[in-house]
Design goal:
By secondary structure, the protein is an alpha+beta fold. The protein contains 7 helices and 6 strands. In the C-terminal section; belongs to the PRA-PH family.
């Protein structure tokens, strides 16, 4: 595996390379990026892992949404500085809910698929921020303060927020308090080194 990974020219683009992703019928799904470790995880698991430049982390495609990409073939270009993944997608590739990120011609308006649900994406972004605040405490950060105060405070705050949901008197208040509860639940999970993806996996197992 190391020999295969080392064939890629990682140094040319600062340790990451562009990745064209297409399905087994030849339709281009998206353009992503990989680091050495992302390619390693892809080869080890058989599922596409990409490097997120905005979040500076490796993520498995569909780790929260379930829209994973089963990798059938990995190709490298003539200069060894770009990859092509041929995949079997389990759901949309695009964050808009469309099958491919290239669903429109230049100049056409963006189209959001009706079934798209951004909630899990928002939760995943919040989870990542909470993890960062845990690993590096930041002055003035409420999240960092919770981690500094420890388990008793974290568990107490989650319990308080859960009660606030139960006693909320109207629809708007329930929504507001539920948002607070979900945030504190993610803090509790992060304290125990449990990822949201693990919870989603358990829910998926129960559904089967």
């Amino acid at each position: 595996m190391d020999e295969l990974i080392n064939r890629v020219n990682w140094e040319k683009n600062g340790g990451i390379v562009p990745v064209i992703v297409q399905d087994t019928r030849g339709e281009v799904l998206t353009l992503a990026y990989m680091s050495r470790e992302a390619l390693r995880k892809t080869l080890e698991t058989g599922y596409a892992h990409y490097y997120s430049r905005s979040q500076d982390r490796i993520r498995m495609k569909g780790e929260v949404s379930g829209n994973v990409q089963l990798v059938k073939e990995v190709r490298v270009d003539c200069d060894n500085d770009a990859l092509l993944l041929i995949v079997e997608p389990k759901g949309p590739a695009c964050h808009t809910g469309n099958y491919s990120c290239f669903y429109r011609k230049l100049g056409e308006p963006e189209r959001i698929a009706e079934e798209i649900d951004y909630s899990l994406t928002i939760l995943r972004e919040l989870e990542e921020l909470i993890k960062q605040r845990k690993e590096k405490l930041l002055d003035g950060s409420y999240t960092s303060k919770l981690f500094a105060e420890g388990k008793e405070k974290i568990y107490k705050k989650f319990g308080e927020e859960a009660i606030e949901v139960l006693v909320a008197e109207d629809r708007e208040r329930i929504i507001y308090e539920t948002a607070d509860m979900l945030y504190h639940l993610l803090v509790l999970l992060a304290y125990n080194d449990i990822s949201l993806g693990e919870v989603m996996t358990e829910l998926r197992r129960r559904r089967k």
